[in-house]
Every structure is written in structure tokens, then in C-alpha cells.
Amino acid sequence: MNRMLIIGLGLVVGLGILTVIFFALRRQPPKPPEKPKEVEVVIARQAIPPGRPISGALIDIVKLPESEIPPDALHVVDDVVGRIPVQVIKEGEVIRNSVLLVPASIARGYEVPLGARAVAIYVTPNSSTADIVLPGDIVDVFAIYRVTPQGAQAAAEGTRTVLLAQGAQVLAVDKITEAGEEEPVRVTGAVEGATTGQPTEEATKEGAALRKPQIILRRVVLSVSPTQAERILGAAHTANAELDLAVRNEYDTSILPELEARARAKRRKAVARKPRRAERAPTAIVQPMRPPRIITVYRGTNREEVILTE
Fold it and tell me: Given pLDDT bands bounded at 50, 70 and 90, which one contains residue 60?
């Protein structure tokens, strides 16, 4: 009897404890909502106009909720500085990769020095330095002109070499493959009834084809001065000229005096050819004399003329 009573009391006490715990849990305040995850992004500190490279003073890094960040947003300052926007970026706007252009120097793989000009020279595999020119080399540029004396035959054709530029730096070297002009090609395959190795008339008609041979060139991009660029471009567009390079030691920056001497002589000739203006003797300015003022004075019966002075 006592045992059953003890078990009943235990059950009642257990139920009471469970009831207290249940109501205690219901009275607890609800958990605060989880804070959204924030990510650092690059924004515009002020309005950025299009067409100009972005500097570090125009941008800033802030933390924004991940849900509010565009998928192509940029998160590192180095990915933004130097790039060019294609549209206006408003103040506080997240900078996206889709509105920025890659700088030309990065796209090309080299940067043109300030004040210099980049020109491209195309050299053939037969050129003297076609296989040894590398980016960073210092080279001299020459123009080889084909000269035929007047009245001479083609066999008497000669060449004349002119130094165009000295100490030019090689920025890049690329291999270019171009297709030449179409030329007919004869196919001498076996044809029924053909007993010799020579192509028959039918084989020539049936096997004739047009082919564009491939021409392999090397494009050498040079950094030169504006004056050197003028000489190189002028020679590149001359029909009887071919450009070639000579590689220097990378520490050799000397300039041949002959080129400067020729330039000075050319300037002297240009000055001497200018006609001088004839010097005119100064002309004296002659002012006309005014006539004297004369008055007549009568004194009694005497008449007298007096000249008035100013």
C-alpha cells in the first residue's frame, strides 16, 4: 500500500515539474533574428564621369549585406583603380565589373612611355634580326631602299641604307600569319590514259586550283620619339623600301653623331634658302609750312605791314 502511494506521489511531482518547465519555456523572449552577413565592396565616394581612369581618391570600401550586392561587384581596390567606366557611376553606388573597361596598356600587355610613340614594324623571316629580337631590347631602325640607275636594266638594281632611328626600345614582339594573293596551282595526279609524268590538258583543267600561300611576319612594336616615328612611318609607306633592325647592347644609349650632323646641315640649308627681306631706309616726315599772318597798320597817312609770330 505504501509502495503504491509513493509511486503515485512521484508521478504527481514529475507532472508538476514538467508543467512548470513548459510554462517557463513559453514565457522566454523570442530569439532575435540573425544579422545578415555583410561583405566588403568598393563604392564610389563621389560621382565618377565616364571615359577617364578611376583613381583611389574616388572610391571607398564599405560593408553591405550580401543580399544587396550585385553579382559582378568588385571587392578589391586594385581591381578598380586605373580602369575606365563606360557610364556615370553615382555617388555611393557599388562599382560593378560590367561597367568598367580594361585599360589599353593591360589589354596590349605593354605601356607606352610618357612622351613617346609606339610604332609597329613588320619584318620577314629573311630579316637579319627576325628571330633574335625580344621585348626590352634596344635597337636601331634602318630603311633599305632598292635603287635602279636611270637607263639601267633590272640586273643593275642596287640598295641604299638609311638610318631612321637610334636607341628605340622594343615593347612587344608578335608572330603574324597572313594569307598572300591567290595563285593557280597545278595538280599532277594520275589520270586515266596518262602514261607520262607530265600533266595532260585534261589534268590541268580538272586539277587546277587556287591557293593562298601563308606569309609569316613578325610584328615588332617600338617606343620612339615623335620625330623618329615620322621617319619610320614615312619609310614604311614607301614602295621601294624595306625596314630592318639592328640589336644593341641594352646599356648602349649613345647616338651616332652623323645623324645629328645631317640634321644640322639640313637646317642650315633650309635657313640659307629663305630669301631675306630688303631693308628699307627710314623716310623723313616732312610737314607743310604754314603761311605767315600779316596785318596792315595805318598811322595817319602812313601804311605799315606787320608779321605776326605764334
Answer: very high
Count CB-CB contacts under 10 A for residue 92: 12
C-alpha cell at 234: 614615312
Q: Is the per-residue pLDDT at 124 higher than 90? A: no
d(CA 247, CA 219): 15
C-alpha distances out from residue 23 to 10, 15, 16, 183, Å: 20, 12, 11, 98
Q: What SS3 class is residue 300? A: coil
CB 130 within 8 A of CB 109: no
Which position has the higher pLDDT, 97 or 157? 97
DSSP sequence for 169-197? EEEEEEEEEEE---EEE------TT--SS
Query: What's the grid cell of residue 310?
Result: 605764334
Q: Classify 307 as helix, strand or coil.
A: strand
Query: In this predicted model, what pLDDT tens digit does every residue of 12-22 receive, in sequence order?
Result: 777 777 777 76
pTM of the model: 0.51
User: How far, in whole angstroms, is CA 75 from its chain's centroid?
Assistant: 27
> Residue 206 — pLDDT band, cuts 50, 70, 90?
very low
Nearest to 145 by CA among 235, 220, 219: 235
Query: Is residue 80 packed enough to be buried (19+ CB in 10 Å), middle (13-18) or exposed (0-12)?
Result: buried
Residue 25 burial by Cβ neighbours in a 10 Å radius (0-12, 13-18, 19+): exposed
pLDDT tens digit sequence for 145-197: 888 766 555 555 688 888 899 889 999 888 876 555 555 544 444 444 444 44
The secondary structure of residue 265, as a DSSP letter, is H
Q: Which domains does the chain have, with CATH numbers?
A: 1-102 (3.90.1210.10), 117-186+207-272 (no CATH)
Chain centroid offset of residue 252 CA: 27
